[in-house]
């Protein structure tokens, strides 16, 4: 196994260990055992548990944000919503351990907490960029568009995460049903805020 392959293996098993055990309870020896390497070899790749966790968080957020990017072709507001909700839950289905790390409780370690909050900010910014594709919002308050997109992104992120948490406990529900329920919830509010009379098809 090359050094790059070993590093990739470490990151993969570390995601499972952190998601299952939690940051505080997880130990470098536990990660090393799961990766099939010695603890000194693990420290050759990562200087500390905080370094390992922060690196993993950045990589996972990169992966999630890539999946939240806008579709290449312009689509209607509902189609955009449905397409992105589908992408989010498809990513969660493929990366359950990563999702639990990104959206679980932030670790108490200050350096790791910074990586966690930076990841949250990036996720919100990516969702806000999607809301920015909606031509106009009919808000009941005078709020500049950038801040409106940000608050809608935070609300959508919270709703997505809450439903994903419920799905974690109800894994007999197929992803397609979870996507439809989430789209129903978000669209009923967003439809009232959009300037057009677009209806769900």
Topology:
Elements: H1 3-21, H2 28-35, H3 39-45, H4 49-67, H5 77-94, H6 96-103, H7 110-131, H8 145-169, H9 175-193
Helix pairs in contact: 1-2, 1-6, 2-3, 4-7, 5-6, 5-9, 7-8
Fold and architecture overview:
The protein is mainly α. The protein has two domains: 3-46, Arc Repressor Mutant, subunit A (Orthogonal Bundle); 57-193, Tetracycline Repressor, domain 2. The protein is built from nine helices and no strands.
**Biggest β-sheet description:** none
What's the helix-strand series?
HHHHHHHHH
End-to-end C-alpha gap: 51 Å
Q: Overall mean pLDDT score?
A: 85
- Per the CATH scheme, the topology name of the largest domain is Tetracycline Repressor, domain 2
Q: Which word captures the global form? A: elongated
**Which spans of ≥5 residues are poorly predicted at pLDDT below 50?**
196-201
Level-2 CATH architecture of the largest domain: Orthogonal Bundle
Q: Tally of extended strands?
A: 0
CATH class of the largest domain reads Mainly Alpha
Q: Please compute the radius of gyration using only Cα atoms.
A: 19 Å
InterPro entries: Homeodomain-like_sf (IPR009057), HTH-type_TetR-like_transc_reg (IPR050109), HTH_TetR (IPR001647)
Protein name: TetR family transcriptional regulator
Organism: Kibdelosporangium phytohabitans
Keywords: DNA-binding
